[in-house]
Amino acid sequence: MKRQIPLLIVIILGFIFVVHTFVPHKISQDFFDWYQDWIKAMSPFAVFLGIMSLLMVHGTKIIRKATNWQYSVVTLSALVFTAFAGFMWGTQEGTPYMWLFAHVQMPMSSTMFSLLAFYIASAAYKAFRARSAEATVLLLAAIVVMLGQVPLGAAITHWIPDSAQWILNVPNLAAKRGIALGVGLGMVATSLKILLGIERTYLGSD
Amino acid sequence: MFETISNLVAALLTLFIFSFLYKENPFYRFAEHLLVGVSMGYAIPLVYNLTFIPYVYQPIFLGHKYVFIIPAFIGILYIFRFSRNYSWLSRYPIVFGMAIVGMGVPLSMNTQVLVQMRSAMAPIQDINSFLIFLGTITILMYFYFSKAHTGLYGKFSKIGVWFMMIGFGASFGYTVMARISLLIGRLQFLVGDVLHLIK
Amino acid sequence: MNFLIKLQSLDRRWIYLLVALAIIIPLLIPFDSKTYTTEPVENIYQKVDSFSGKSNKAILMVFMHDASTMPELFPMEVSVLRHAFERNVKVFTICFTPTAAPLVDYAINTVREQFPDKKSGIDYCNFGYKPAALMVPMVLGMGEDISKAVDIDSEGRKIANLPIMQDIKNYNEMNLIINFSGSDYGYTWITYARSKFGANVAAGVTAVMAADAYPFLQTGQLLGMMAGLKGASEYEKLDDVFASYKDANYPSGRPFSKEIINETIANDTFKISDQKVYAFKKARIGMNSQSAAHILIIIFIIIGNLGYFIEKSKQKQDQ
Q: Which of B53, B115, B177 faces C221 most closely, judged by CB atoms?
């Protein structure tokens, strides 16, 4: 029963949605309005998942005094303080809460991703080798696209951006369409499996 | 003055993260953990103000629409996701969200398969449209594993591999561009906003 | 020759240093470079242009990213907002991730510094943050009735009561959706808003995602696309050349024309240095560094491969 009732809800609601896609009847519309209101009322509580996951991982580390547990104190203190700042002083521009976002969260989040620039440069130097004919084609296409995107490439000759555009519009398009068709069929198959109650992993284990 | 100090804090935290490039160190680890905490802590008041108040509190307590207690109660069941004995209760809010795949089946089929196929079947007008047709067909042949890739079939599927290599090359070229752009953004901040060296 | 082989084991930190210098030096020593525009970006520009001054047309900007991809996407958002404000096009904004919410405000405030007369609720409206779980229901709901689906804006006001909503009901009016994302090219909008309601969908993507979107551009499922910093720099330039261009003949900007844009490239007019507002040329300044960094990486690939082949032939000789 712990699994059957949720599965039944997915199947029944799911098939009503299939009908709703094709039948713009008032009953179908009323059903969708009801669904919108209910799903909105459920949505705020999803934040519990993130909070609890973080509390469990870092709380356990602190309690067990695991290696580097001190950093978990930093995480949880930051969580509590930022949330407290939002509730205490508001979430508008100019509040401590927004200061934390603009001068702590934002710079660190973007810097974290910018590290990838260094790694990709290092990989270009140490790993990208023309070991086979296929790898050589890949490298050449990459070089043309890289040059074709920047002003310098166009300044050398207009053939560079033109070739880059051709690569993107013709062979790249064909490649991505072939892959997209496969992915698309896979997605539809997975959705159908969910709808028919065959795919159940999203329910978690018992 | 306050703006300068704020920028310096942001710059310092930026450098803490860049320090990882030299080697793993306590400054980086501190910044990494701080980021996770602040990001999660940031979401809580926002979710409370922008979703709990208008979608739960106001309809129930101000609008007296008590029927909304039911979806709110189902939503609260998320809390049991990590419970050993009661995690099955958290399936209820999850399945309500999942049900919309019913609409995804026909619409995804249309978006990702039918429209793409229609375009792939368009009459061949020039060399480019022929190449797109050839590439799409040969890649699909390559991914069809129920037939051995030998003989003429194998040769065609090999053409698909060449198309894919060009496609992956294009993606790689774009990826390099993307990663460099992100670093440019951070250095524009350090050199421009903090050191005021960009004219 | 041995030198190239030795270079193979160069410490990665030297590579990092060179990359940093390749980016910083062009930032410190600014120069003008030409920005070439491409059709996918021009298509978005022309669509926004076609809504000029129409009270029954609007665009929706969807901020599907956090600060991590901001260097690529933020200049696009600023440029599109600038275009809409210049042309008196109604703008709606929305986001489905908490960390995107302030970015919407930053983008609007950045552009409003140059357009102080633009008012929230009249010229633009920020729907604000909505939980990700509501994305598909809202995308579908807006196809019927925006006021009902979105309900309240970021300031807690009932959307139905706002002056901006006059003449705006659903995707028939809010007929251009531009999805800014680092991880997809607006798939949800194409699937639900375009397939079911026929809305026009365009994408502002990080360059990582750009190559995957070409099949959707060809079919018209995506009306246009801005790809990474390059896409942003193109939109910046289009703003300079058309919407923000003012003279006696065109007191409120001139219409888009392919001839004019080609002319600006041939005559080397509309230089980066001509634009005085830093926020409106940030992507183009960045593209100078992008040129240097790409050349450096291509050199890395060539040196790395030369060393590899020399080492390989030496090993063969030794055998």
A: B115
- Looking at the predicted structure, is the pLDDT value of residue A206 above 70? no
Grade residue C31 by pLDDT with cuts at 50, 70 and 90.
confident
Select from C98, C208, C229 the Cβ nearest to the Cβ of B43: C98
Confidence of residue C68 (pLDDT cuts 50, 70, 90): very high
Residues of chain C contacting residue A143, judged by C-beta atoms under 8 Å apart: 298, 301
Cβ distance C230 to B197 less than 8 Å, yes or no, reads no
Determine whether the interchain pair A86/B135 forms a contact, defined as Cβ–Cβ distance below 8 Å.
Answer: no
- The domain containing residue A47 runs over which residues? 4-89
Per-residue pLDDT tens over the stretch C246-259 = 888 888 889 999 99
List, as ranges, residues 115-134 from C with C-beta within 8 Å of B.
128-131, 133
Tell me how long chain C is: 319
Residue A102 within a domain: no
- Examine the domain organization and report whether A68 and A122 are in the same domain: no
Domain boundaries C39-270, corresponding CATH code: 3.40.50
Q: For testing the chain A interface, which of B7, B67, B105, B142 should be mutated: the one with the most A CBs within 10 Å? A: B105
Q: Quick one: pLDDT band at residue C267, thresholds 50, 70, 90? A: confident
Q: Which residue has the tokens 């890649």?
A: B139
Instruction: Name, in order, each residue with C-beta under 8 angstroms of B125's C-beta and a sequence gap of 6 or more.
Output: none
Of C19, C24, C297, the CB nearest to B191: C24
Both A84 and A147 in one domain: the answer is no
Give, in order, the Cα–Cα distances in Å from C123 to each of B82, C94, C162, C292: 46, 15, 10, 40
Residue C251 has a pLDDT of 86
Residue contacts between A and C (CB atoms, under 8 Å): 146
| Chain C contact probe: residue of B163, B165, B177 with most C CBs at under 10 A | B177
CA distance C61 to chain A (A): 21
Q: Do A15 and A71 fall into the same domain?
A: yes
Structurally, chain A folds into a number of domains equal to: 2
Give the pLDDT of residue A59: 94
pLDDT tens digits for A5-34?
999 999 999 999 999 888 878 898 899 889
pLDDT at position A128: 86
**Least-confidence region, from B49-53, C107-111, C171-175:** B49-53
CA distance C14 to chain B (A): 10
Nearest residue of A to residue C17 by CA position? A118
**Judgement on whether residues A60 and A135 belong to the same structural domain of the protein:** no
Do both A72 and A146 map to the same domain? no
Test the A interface: residue of B50, B53, B60, B88 with most A CBs within 10 Å: B88
